[in-house]
Amino acid sequence: MPPKHDQFASPAQKLLGLFGALLFTGREYSLTGLAGMLGCSKQTVLRMMESIERSREVKIESRFSDDGQRWYKARTPRIRPNVSLTPEGIQHLVLCRDMVMHLLPKGLRDEIENTIARSTAFLPNLHDRGDALVSISKAMVKGAIDYTPHQETIERLFQCIRNKTVCELTYQSSTASHPKTYSYAPLRMVSYREALYVSGAKVAEEGSPEIVMRTILCVHRIKEVVPTIRVHALKEEDEGEGQFGFMCLEPFRVQVKFAQEVAAYVSERTWSEDQVVRQLKNGKTILEFTARSRPEVVSWVLSFGRHALLLKPKDLREDLISVIEAMQGQYQGKK
């Protein structure tokens, strides 16, 4: 797998990245999270914190959480910093807008448009406004969902995520005949394959919001979201990120052989952070990676048709053979 691009390569860039994250986001960061974000040790982060505090440009507040983690946050300055944007910086925002607009309801799209347009007021030269707002990208979408009817749902989920609020959520599963309502703690919005999901946990109906089951829900299948006064301290689990598959199930190793016709396509992409790619002398490629969803692996291998051969795991290979036999029977009119 090719090495990742490190945007905080030099010590100076790491210090600027730390300063910017604290000052401009207003978020609270853990010492562990900052070390991971900047690609350095916790001791290095602590030394940079000391440098920032000695500069007296910003006051840093710190605390220890119940689990012993140390957290940092920049105190809001009394005088706003004098910030100016560049046309290139605004074009990067326009780029992000173009790539995700199809996932958002019309009301949110209009709000994003207006916000980006207002940001041009921070350009040093206002004559650059027209160039900054030029669209240079486009997202090609298959099977998009119109989220305009779901704008209120999305905004209420945002509200609950920001405020760490439990909600009463009514959900229509694709396999159930009637919607069900339960207490839910939304933790993060997720986009995956042209659709929006909310990741969170079903919690106890009364008392302390203890986790009953962690789950991911399709936003367009949510019928109603009613925020409550109950708050929680749950955190999103990052376990399994970087592995193949959307559903977070027990991880397993997969090995697939690909024909020469698709070898370049497969080897040019990252399917799992720990993947291993072997190029064979006959032009074929063997890809080995960690997955966490058996149905998604089966569907993915089938998408390559005769150009992919699942080698491992053996039991999943047998499941795939059964699917292929059922498909053959269906096309031959046997099922």
Write a structural description.
With 335 residues, the chain is of the alpha+beta class. It is 35% helix and 24% strand. The protein has four domains: 11-74, Arc Repressor Mutant, subunit A, CATH 1.10.10; 87-132; 148-231, SH3 type barrels; 252-331, Alpha-Beta Plaits. It has helices at residues 11-25, 31-38, 42-55, 87-100, 106-119, 129-132, 151-163, 260-267, 294-302, 314-331; strands spanning 29-30, 60-64, 70-74, 165-171, 180-192, 195-203, 211-218, 222-231, 252-258, 276-279, 285-291, 308-312. The strands form three sheets. A five-stranded antiparallel sheet has the order 7-6-5-4-8, covered by helices on one side. A hairpin with a 5-residue loop joins strand 10 and strand 11. The longest helix has 18 residues, at 314-331. The two termini are 43 Å apart. The model is unreliable at 1-5 (pLDDT under 50).
